[in-house]
């Protein structure tokens, strides 16, 4: 009975610890948001979604919102420099940025909802990202449900260092996307019907239908938002750099430009995120060894799929931004944390037996 009571007390202490850390992450991320330039694009997209169609009026409302949500020095940073100043001064330039942002309607809609609490759309984007960060911390921790006190204490900080801290403080939809993806994967693991996906028992026709719906959704969102297409955004982001008038950019991508973009992305990853690269390589090697012995579990396959997504994402868009790979990093940490926690629990169970045998001898 004493052991049961101690276990319950430890679980309660763990939940309180997790709640305090999650709340702190949300509050700290919201109040210390990075106010990256994307906040302007998503704020403008929100006003457009709310029915603002006039180009001049859209620009005025957007920058008034940003001004109210940020400190004067931050607003100056967001509106100075050749590109930023041009978008600030010319409403047409801001209008031409919208297709890059209106393609993410869920994040935009949630930011509008968040603005009811914050008073500004810009504040709404920060609130959504901060809340997603807090929920990701809870999901990552509960996916392990560590029994080891040391692991329970350290896991939140490992998740934070894996990119969660950056996700929660950026006005981008990456945190929301990571939350949806991680929640879906954990749902598939815990419940019988979705788990069929991880076990590979879903009929191929169903898989084809799901892929078809996903592809149709992406194509529909691109068409609805008037997106400029893959090559244009590749050039805009990775080669020529941000342009005030992306609709007027000429298609001048050459093979040298593309190879240079891959080299820069790889250099960014290696120089700034060496730990994450090591985590990916180490996890891939460990799972490859398990696969050779025929011991892969369904969750192992999910981790391998996430690592495959990292590779495909980099091949398609070599930005080298760590926030694009957080789900894979989180799954790798969950995998290793479960292994360490299981090893620790087995060791603790053996310790009393060893003590009894020594006493008997």
From TrEMBL:
<keyword id="KW-0472">Membrane</keyword>
<protein>
    <recommendedName>
        <fullName>Glycosyltransferase RgtA/B/C/D-like domain-containing protein</fullName>
    </recommendedName>
</protein>
<feature type="transmembrane region" description="Helical">
    <location>
        <begin position="322"/>
        <end position="340"/>
    </location>
</feature>
<keyword id="KW-1133">Transmembrane helix</keyword>
<feature type="transmembrane region" description="Helical">
    <location>
        <begin position="12"/>
        <end position="30"/>
    </location>
</feature>
<feature type="transmembrane region" description="Helical">
    <location>
        <begin position="299"/>
        <end position="316"/>
    </location>
</feature>
<keyword id="KW-0812">Transmembrane</keyword>
<feature type="transmembrane region" description="Helical">
    <location>
        <begin position="121"/>
        <end position="142"/>
    </location>
</feature>
<feature type="transmembrane region" description="Helical">
    <location>
        <begin position="149"/>
        <end position="170"/>
    </location>
</feature>
<feature type="transmembrane region" description="Helical">
    <location>
        <begin position="205"/>
        <end position="224"/>
    </location>
</feature>
């Amino acid at each position: 009975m004493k052991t049961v009571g101690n276990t319950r007390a430890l679980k309660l202490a763990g939940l309180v610890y997790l709640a305090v850390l999650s709340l702190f992450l949300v509050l700290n991320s919201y109040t210390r948001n990075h106010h990256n330039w994307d906040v302007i694009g998503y704020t403008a997209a929100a006003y457009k979604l709310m029915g603002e169609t006039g180009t001049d009026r859209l620009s005025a409302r957007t920058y008034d919102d940003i001004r109210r949500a940020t400190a004067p020095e931050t607003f100056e940073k967001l509106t100075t420099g050749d590109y930023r100043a041009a978008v600030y001064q010319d409403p047409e330039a801001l209008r031409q940025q919208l297709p890059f942002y209106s393609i993410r309607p869920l994040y935009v809609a949630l930011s509008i909802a968040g603005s009811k609490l914050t008073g500004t759309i810009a504040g709404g984007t920060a609130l959504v990202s901060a809340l997603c960060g807090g929920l990701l911390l809870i999901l990552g921790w509960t996916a392990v449900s560590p029994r080891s006190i040391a692991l329970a204490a350290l896991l939140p900080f490992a998740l934070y260092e894996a990119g969660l801290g950056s996700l929660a403080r950026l006005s981008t939809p990456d945190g929301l996307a990571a939350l949806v993806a991680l929640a879906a994967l954990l749902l598939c693991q815990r419940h019988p019907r979705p788990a069929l996906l991880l076990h590979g028992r879903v009929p191929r026709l169903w898989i084809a239908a799901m892929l078809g719906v996903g592809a149709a959704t992406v194509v529909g969102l691109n068409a609805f938002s008037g997106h400029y297409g893959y090559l244009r955004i590749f050039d805009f982001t990775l080669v020529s750099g941000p342009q005030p008038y992306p609709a007027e950019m000429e298609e001048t991508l050459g093979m040298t430009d593309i190879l240079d973009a891959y080299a820069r992305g790889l250099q960014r990853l290696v120089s700034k995120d060496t730990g994450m690269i090591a985590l990916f390589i180490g996890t891939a090697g460990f799972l490859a060894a398990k696969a050779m012995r025929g011991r892969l579990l369904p969750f192992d396959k999910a981790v391998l799929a996430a690592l495959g997504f990292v590779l495909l994402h980099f091949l398609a868009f070599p930005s080298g931004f760590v926030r694009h790979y957080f789900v894979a990093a989180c799954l790798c940490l969950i995998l290793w944390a479960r292994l360490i926690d299981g090893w620790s629990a087995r060791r603790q169970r053996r310790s009393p037996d060893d003590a009894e045998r020594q006493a008997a001898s």
